[in-house]
Amino acid sequence: MLDLEYAVTEPFLNYHLFHEGLNTKVKVLTSSLNHVIEYLLTPGNENKMNELIKKTDKSWQFPPNFSLPSPPVDESNLKNKTSSRRLDKEEDNNELDYQLKKKELAQEMLYWYVSEMAIFGTFSALDDCIVDIDSWFSSWAMFNNTQDKKSESTSSNKIERLYDSHEWNMKNIKTFLPIYEYFSAVRNSIAHRQSKASHKLSEISKSQELKESVERNFPKGKPLSEFEYNEDIFISPKTSLLCSHIIRLIFEDINKYIIKKMGIEGIIYMSCKLAFEPSSYNESKVVNLARNRLNEIVSGRYHVIIKGEDEAVKVAESLGIWRDCAKFHANNMRKLDPKF
């Protein structure tokens, strides 16, 4: 018996792995930039960015001049300073405030590049996974000599278009869509308006639907930033990860529909394609028995619960593909060990 209760599919798994990798990259990049900022804020290091650039790559020996941005001067403080003598403690506080503002400005300038990368990467991964879903459905339909029927959709929202085309119910993801729309508008403003807020982003950022979605799904979280039309966008790297997180939550629902459409036979077909097709066979992970190779993918990669070691093979046999899979596996084993 094969149990699909906790099963995942290749499109979902690909997005999940992207999300985990993005999480790590964003945190590494942000912490690295924070280290650079703190180094440059240390007295005596203000103009040492050039040295760091030169150390990074030997071909960058003539780097551009770079220094952290300075906050605007508070003229009222200047007037007070000339008209009265300040206490040392007040001067220390002013210097601390100045350094904090300078750090915030630097973070806003440099962190935004990380956020842009995260948001762009997220929507690129989404596009890839949608293409992957259509590819698997077409392949499965072709194998079964059927047609992958799709309905027309006029929605500009990629998620809604995917659900409409396959006539899936969106009730489980409705709560996430306002946040998805927000980040989609951010992405488009970055791509087409040089990171200045569009009318659509300004409207969505102030909407009651967005506010309620954030409060419902992240009751301890802060509201997402509001933007005026044409305002420069800044979203922290931490918040940019919410973009990928929301899409991953949506993909959990999509994963269930993929399983429902393909069933256990489709999942075994998917497993055999990955395990034994020449384009995806990984010789570094070859095991002696073809059955074990298949079970490794079915249970290890796709989290299908196998209650009998021959159950997956029986399904592959019923599909008429097991003989070719076993033959391909044996041929690869002979390449590694002629005595096999």
Characterise this structure.
The chain is mainly alpha-helical and 340 residues long. The chain folds into two domains: 256 residues, no CATH class; 79 residues, no CATH class. It is 66% helix and 1% strand. It is built from twelve helices and two strands. It has a two-stranded antiparallel sheet with strand order 1-2. α1 packs antiparallel against α4, α6 packs antiparallel against α7 and α9 crosses α11. The two termini are 30 Å apart. The relative contact order is 0.12.
Task: List the topology elements.
Layout: E1 2-3, H1 10-41, H2 49-56, H3 75-83, H4 88-143, H5 158-166, H6 177-193, H7 199-205, H8 208-217, H9 237-276, H10 290-301, E2 305-306, H11 311-319, H12 322-336
Antiparallel strand pairs: 1-2
Helix pairs in contact: 1-4, 1-9, 4-6, 4-9, 6-7, 6-8, 9-10, 9-11
| Contiguous helical run count | 12
Q: Residue-averaged pLDDT, rounded?
A: 90
Terminal residue distance: 30 Å
List the secondary-structure elements in sequence, H or E.
EHHHHHHHHHHEHH
What is the overall shape?
globular
Q: Give the percentage of residues in beta strands.
A: under 5%
Structural class: mainly alpha
The whole-angstrom Rg is: 27 Å
Low-confidence stretches: none
Please count the beta strands (DSSP E, at least 2 residues each).
2
Total domain units: 2
Major beta sheet, specifics?
A: 2 strands, antiparallel
Main-sheet strand order equals 1-2
Helix content: 55-70%
List keywords for this structure.
66% helix, two-stranded antiparallel sheet, 2 domains
